[in-house]
Design a protein that fits this description.
- This protein has helices spanning 3-13, 22-35, 53-62, 71-79, 96-105, 114-124, 162-172, 190-204, 232-250, 262-265, 298-302, 389-393, and strands at residues 17-21, 42-46, 65-68, 87-89, 108-111, 130-135, 157-158, 176-180, 212-214, 255-258, 269-280, 285-289, 308-310, 318-324, 332-340, 347-350, 371-376, 379-384.
- It is an alpha/beta fold.
- It binds pyridoxal-5'-phosphate (PLP).
Length: 400
Amino acid sequence: MNATQLLDVANEFGTPVYVYDETKIIQQYKRLKKAFGPLDVKLHYAMKALTNTNILRIFNKMGSGLDAVSIEEVMLGIQAGFTPESIMYTPNGVSFQEMENAIALGVMINIDNLSILEAFGAKYGNSVPVCIRLNPHIMAGGHANISVGHIDSKFGISIHQVRHIKRIVDHYGILVTGLHMHTGSDIVDADVFLQGAELLYDAASHFPDLTFMDFGSGFKVAYKENDYLTPIEEIGSKISESFTSFCEAYGRPLELWFEPGKFLVSESGVLLVSVNVVKQTTSSVFLGVNSGQNHLIRPMFYNAYHRIENISNPKGMKKLYTVVGYICETDTFGYDRPIGEANEGDVLAIYNAGAYGFSMSNNYNSRRRPAEVLFRKGKGYLIRKRETMEDITRNEIILD
Ligand SMILES: Cc1ncc(COP(=O)(O)O)c(C=O)c1O
């Protein structure tokens, strides 16, 4: 999508609005599949990144599965047309009741807690296959809040507790068909994946019924020019090689799974906002826009960088602006950014907003969530209406 096309979308649907480029999503999916060469890697799209049903349907059509982390995501996936067997349910800290509900829906469940494994064994024995999420104790990821495979993380069962897992598995005859790890997001070092993979290969010798291994995700995309990226092709060839040797040693071919979110949808998405005010203070020139951390929280939550362009004046002289939201918090999208000279009413494009943008949005300050548009074959289609005031108060019960 170029600046003119984005401006057309802003004019047609108003701002703030999220726009997603279908072509880019398809390209990223194909690129990742291809990186593993002849190995038919199975991708489960991490739907938490962007859950609009139209986006889920694009993945379903391409043959992707889903990675769901809540029963609500499982239900959304099934509603969007995914078969239960194509959904991997990887919850953390949920009640056993929620696990039971997921099992009843027929999805593959991923257990990341010994007490849940024990309760599962007592109730289901070997009647339902399970995957086990191991915590490999690897520090990986672009920010402390998105590093989830280290020793202090709440996720997974420690790789050092395989003996505990085995006690429970053997006692109840649990059928373990998969091993899983996810170490974090924004990983730029291919060797981190190999390191984690080796630990899972070692653990595999304790589980004779495996049919797949899931190496999670964490593939980073470019947020700015010359940014560090996850070298997808390098990971593809190195992991394919090591996985093929592992399968030979294990005695039969297993499936290799990944569950990317950001890699598949981040670059497809743009948040379009309008400049409400240009405000010069003693220290800065602020562009105050009609959006904020309620629509895109990543810069404030993770210190994430999002490139910003004035698409109303893309060729204009660059000036330094600090782009801020309208929320009653310090919600800064970018500090001292060189942006084409801006006037009130101009439209800014905030790039790389496809993943964890709309899906993390909220109604703080009683602001309405933006609309969503899918850009397909050169044309924008509304895929979610902008919220109304009725949406804000819909579930309130007014007492006398
Ligand atoms: C279990 C699990 N799998 C996959 C993902 C997707 O990660 P990413 O968006 O970095 O690809 C996440 C992200 O939080 C996750 O927790």
